[in-house]
Amino acid sequence: MKQVLTGNEAAAIAAKLARVKVVSAYPITPQTAIVEKLAEFVANGELDAEFMKVESEHSAMSACIGAAAVGARAFTATSSQGLMLMSEMLYIAAGLRLPIVMANANRALSAPLNIWCDQQDSMAVRDSGWVQLYCENNQEILDSVLQAYRVAEELMLPVMVCFDGYILSHTAEPVDVPTQEEVDDFLPPYKPPHPLDPARPVTMGPVGVPEYYQEIRYMLQEALLAAKDKIIEVDREYGKKFGRRYGLVESYRSDDAEIILLTLGSLSGTAKDLIDRCRRRGERVGLVRVRTYRPFPREALVKALRHAKAVAVLEKDISLGWTGALFADISCALANVEGAPLLLNFICGLGGRDVSPLQIREALRAAARAVEAGEVRRPVRWLGLREKLVGLRA
Amino acid sequence: MRAAPSIPEEELLAPGHRACAGCGCVLAMRYLLKALGRNIIISMATGCMEVVTTPYPETAWRVPWIHSAFENAAATAAGIAAGLKALGKKGIKSVAIAGDGGTADIGLQALSGAVERGDDVLFCCYDNEAYQNTGIQRSGATPFGAWTTTTPIGRVKRGEDRPKKDVPAIIAAHGAPYVATASVAYPLDFIEKLRKAAAIEGPTYVHVHAPCVPGWRIDTNKTIEVARLAVLTGSWVLYEVEGGQLRVTFKPPKRRPVVDYLKLQGRFRHLVDEEIARIQRMVDEQCRRFGIE
To answer: What is the pLDDT of residue B5?
Structure first.
């Protein structure tokens, strides 16, 4: 049934449909409405779950770890500073191989304090061992949370479903909400292989001595790499059942494109609109959206991008002291690819700065100039920067 | 006179762990397992007991056990309790265990949260009065005057300059249904308190005083003697707070001077008469509050 839902509502309804058993929640803007909604569901008896009102995000993830370790399906949501506070526990959840699913409404990091959207928060924990999915719209948020539990529980890996704060979290769109029966048919109850249980005592999280630590990390890396196939498999099954598929990456009018925009999240919606306009003028431009950022879909991206002359990477994050995180990753992925396209990085939309079609147009033009010149003179540029404020212009 | 509690012979902490000879904390773990039995799940903070009992692929634990981080034993245990409840699994107690650093300092927030929320968790703090696992650094639970590697004896500063943080009082102030202190030198008292705590549905707290051989600079055969002297001198008071009512569970018949406790420990070796007198006054004041002569 179609409902008009905000991104936060879509995430909360998905968690309810997934029949989560433990919700561990701490408020932070712009995620708060997710846990508020879940609290309502529990209070109304619509969701049979323990709702834990923990005292910090660190404890939110710790409690999810405890709940998942005894075999309860666990859910939490956070943003920004909350994600940073729980970052220690993110690594541990992955290291303990616990299939926790978390929604992250992307928000900028302090300082200065900023509650608006960018993706520096989840990018900062990209190496934590979590699967990271970035959604373009509210329908995809709901679908991704449901898919996430399947991927998580079949591989024993935690999954983070990321979506842009405010732009999606607080914006209402029509969302097709499946019935509980349909979801139950897709997502069976969680059956952990080795739960904490007095009947069969196990030790979880021992000291990983040097003789074993490296192998344990290797196995985590292998599981994460295997998640690429699992995400495709689950997505395919989901598509059959619900008629919507997302894949690891999405290609939009890019098959014959000379210049391709590479994006993450809601920015793709605006960019697709611009691509349509450019196409009408006969420009051979297209877009590729990274939906699965960890594990990094190298093969899919090489396939989607290698024929282009230039790729303009637009992203709402900066690995300070270097480039955008996605740009660094795609540069690495294309490093040994013959005839790889020229790469340009555009940092944009930090701390809620609007990314306009005009700015995206500017990125396409810069890419076209690079193709003409046959080289990239300034690989990293900032879009929409108020140059006077930073002393670049008098 | 009450009957002594029955203590099972069964050892749920396997031998072969890496604890130091004479370790007071590992004794506390053994007693805890004897008191609580098999139907528990332990969430343990980073620290001595975690490190010495679980060098992968070995484990000393014959009960389900998880370690996730340092500051979150209570939060992880709260998640375990919530998970068990959500799954309808009854009769399994969620037990959090942390050292004094993992309780009084870095773990205090998570502990406070779990107690305030009324989570069904028994939290046991094994208190060896410093960060012994990292090599004897002071914690909030280090007593006044003690030498540690971060409270060295120098020309200007002479050991720990602050009194011990009173965590049991902090937890009692939360309105926890049961709070108790214990000592490894009084195992029957400790075991009884643990069983009492475990029988209550809700947050309960047992704080056990446990000497550390290398950290307190004592001989390996003096652990129990030193722990007992802490109680006999009134330096450590055994009590319980049940439904808000405080009851001292053991009153030393005739309080020994505190110097008897201090002189056995290298960490207090530097103390001069004047400093010992000051500690005696602090202990006297503490005993007065507890109604101990």
So the answer is: 76
Rounded mean pLDDT, A373-391 = 96
What is the Cα gyration radius of chain A?
21
Question: In whole angstroms, what is the distance from residue A86 CA to residue A88 CA?
Answer: 5
3-state secondary structure of B291: coil
- Token couple for B231: 């109680």
Structural Rg of chain B based on CA atoms: 18
Q: Which residues of A touch B82 (CB under 8 A)?
A: 22, 24, 50, 52, 63, 66-67, 72
Q: d(Cα A259, Cα A278) in Å, to the nearest integer?
A: 11
Contacts of B56 in chain A (CB under 8 A): 206-209, 212
Residue at B167 is within a domain:
yes
Looking at residue B90, which CATH number applies to its domain? Answer: 3.40.50.970
* Residues above pLDDT 90, as percent of chain B: 97
Instruction: List alpha helices for chain A, DSSP H.
Output: 7-17, 32-43, 57-70, 80-85, 87-95, 120-124, 138-155, 180-186, 210-242, 267-280, 298-305, 325-333, 357-373
CA distance B63 to B38: 6
- CB burial of A240-276 (b: ≥16 within 10 Å; e: otherwise) equals eebeeebbbbbbbbbeebbbbbbbbbbbbebbbebbe
Average pLDDT, integer, range A203-231: 98
Cα–Cα distance for residue pair A90/A160, rounded to 1 Å: 10
pLDDT higher than 70, residue B1: no
Tell me the residue range of the domain where B277 lies. Answer: 24-290
Cβ <8 Å between A66 and B63: no
Closest partner residue to A21 (CB to CB) among B56, B86, B109 is B86
**In Å, how far is B115's CA from the nearest CA of chain A?**
11
Q: What is the mean pLDDT of chain A?
A: 97
Arithmetic mean of pLDDT over chain B: 97
Q: Which chain A residues have a beta carbon less than 8 Å from that of B59? A: 203, 206
- Report DSSP letters for A280-301, one per residue: HTT--EEEEEESEEES--HHHH
Residue B260 pLDDT level (bands cut at 50, 70, 90): very high
Q: Which of B56, B82, B92 sits opposite A63 (nearest CB)?
A: B82
Q: List, in order of start, the domains of chain A with CATH numbers.
A: 2-242 (3.40.50.970), 250-382 (3.40.50.920)
